[in-house]
Every structure is written in structure tokens, then in C-alpha cells.
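[Automated response] Your request has been received and processed.

Submitted sequence:
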Amino acid sequence: MAVSIGDQVRLLRAQPYLKSADPMPMLRPPDLVDLDEVGTVTALHPGETVAVRFSRGTFLLGTDALTPSDDKASS
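Generated structure:
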């Protein structure tokens, strides 16, 4: 999946853990992000990794774990 900064994305599946996008990344529990929560891509990193800002933090995720969020209105 090709992503750009500012894209709205969702998780495809639950993650075993989340890695924070801090200068010194830390592993965080996976329940900080719900599968239906929309996040914003804030940075592109090497190796198909992006930083995504969700309501409870910014996390590093592989692009294979994300899907575009096409709907603007939650149903």
C-alpha cells in the first residue's frame, strides 16, 4: 500500500503490540488503538514503516498492517 503524509488509515488486524514513534521507541499494549479508529500518517520511515497518530498516541506501523480509510463519516 502506498501512503503519503496526511493520509487517513485504519488497522487491518489487531497487533500483538504497538511501538511508539518517540525518539526512543517503547513497546506499548495493543489495546491503545481500536480496529475501527482512524489515524493520520504523520511520517514516512524506511522499510515500509510509517508513523500514524491515533487519539491515544503516535505509533510505528508497517504499511501491510494498514488500510485506507475511505469513509469520512463513521457508521
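Summary generated for your ticket: The mean pLDDT is 92. The two ends are 24 Å apart (CA to CA).
If you did not submit this request, please reply to this message.
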